[in-house]
Amino acid sequence: MEFFSTRGGPRVALADAVLKGLAPDGGLYVPLTFPSLDPDDFDPAADLATIGEQLIRPFFADDVLATDLLAICREALNFPVPLLQTRDPRLSILELFHGPTAAFKDVGARFLAACLTRLTGARRPTVMVATSGDTGSAVAAACAERAGLRVVILYPEGGVSARQEHQLTCWGDNVLSLRVRGAFDDCQRLVKAAFLDEELAEACPLTSANSISVARLLPQMSYYAAASLSWKAQHGKNANFIVPTGNLGNALAGIWARRCGMPIGQIVLATNANTVIPRFLGSGQWQPEDTVATLASAMDVGNPSNMERLRHLHPDHSDLSQQVTAYAFEDDAIAETVRDAHASLGLAVCPHTATALAAYREVDSSQAWTALATAHAAKFEGTVEPLIGETVEVPPALAALLERPTNRTDIEPTHEALKARLLEWS
Ligand SMILES: *Cc1c(COP(=O)(O)O)cnc(C)c1O
Fold first, then answer.
1. Which protein residues touch ligand 1 with a CB less than 6 Å away?
2. Measured torsion, CA atoms of residues 413, 208, 317, 9, in degrees rounded to the nearest 10
3. Looking at the domain assignment, is residue 129 inside a domain?
4. Within a domain: residue 299?
5. Which range, 296-305, 331-340, 394-403, has the best average confidence (pLDDT)?
């Protein structure tokens, strides 16, 4: 299938959209059409890779990667994504954090890396990624195991947890970890500027691994499909999801999966004190803001870039506001929810997952809901442990990464500083 830019730019093959990341006109790639799939054609008991392959196949049709899709799905979607019933009969949790870096970003990062290794041109591009914490480590982990891929990570100074920073900086020579004196939005701005720099494109061809990458969005649809198909098979109803939201990549994948025909009912977004999305849904005015630092730091995004895709899909505001609703929570509500989830449900949840559980109290209580758990609580132990008064056990994969030595470079938040460091490295 072909893809084109949200700003109207020319059509490109999927593989080109994957390699380019951002469209040349500054827009984001979106598929030409969405397939209409019949849920009855899926086996709800199949594994994540099988369901993912079936769902993603139409998007890969006629592409150079088409024949590899099943192998890509098997390599990337190879860890469990369990749907757990909590003590509250109306609340289930979809645990997305059983991959190598203990956050849902592993799904997209592993799929992207599996695609990139197969797109072997004469000059394989360097993967560049701005991260508020979890993306960078997921991409580094996914690429580190693949010979020939190089990765540049930009992360905000003071914007990530100690364990996240360790995971961002514990890699070998093919990963350049840059700590930027600024916020996540500065990192994102630097990545965008780097992509539009022609001299850099010549010296050091770049590709994106941010949630603007279609190779991250498409596989994220898989867990919505698998969970909703299994829910429908058990309960005979569509599944309603609550999604902790920052840059809107996760939630957009759910909206795309629903658009393809998966049995998904409502999609509710939960944000932290960065309220640009809920305010936009309320007023119709798109007013990006400076980022506010919160306990749910991987969602500290003042200008969520994937909103451009959602607005492109639903240009009419009243139509768009039918598609999703959103709730925002200040840090005190997040902290209170972490404590309450532990006390009443017996769960240790990360601060991001806590926003979804806080939103659960606001939504229609006559329906059942599935909250997405986007990271393991052990990644944010500095926040979670004092609130629940217990140590959170570190999963083995994360423990292994925390043993490794680290290495990073500090840079100013300017295009010149980034460019100089990149040219020196490449
Ligand atoms: C990235 C991230 C989010 C936000 O996801 P978006 O796709 O940016 O909306 C939420 N929780 C965790 C743990 C994350 O790493």
1. 103, 105, 134, 211, 244-251, 298-299, 352, 374-375
2. 110
3. no
4. yes
5. 331-340
